Amino acid sequence: MEYMDYIKIGLEGEEPLKLILRGRVDKTKEDKVGVVEVVFATLYKKKTEEKINNLINNNDDSESYYMVYSVPFDTDLTKFAHYPSIEIGKEDLL
């Protein structure tokens, strides 16, 4: 699957809460650190679609990676096989 296919899955999900996550590597004076952060949350698919397109198309930081998730309320997300997350591998930190 391509990157935008995964975005579409998040946008089309039936769960009410739409989250946009950003994964990036921050460089400090001594090291690099992987950061995953929630950058947008809404109940509206259209707002999510507009925001993710804006973030992707105006991404000044080529190191950032965005993903959309559709999640239910009042649920322990760690019980799912895959929940909102972005993997930052060791090779990204070298």
UniProtKB/TrEMBL annotation:
Query: Which organism is this entry from?
Result: Inconstantimicrobium porci
Full protein name: Uncharacterized protein
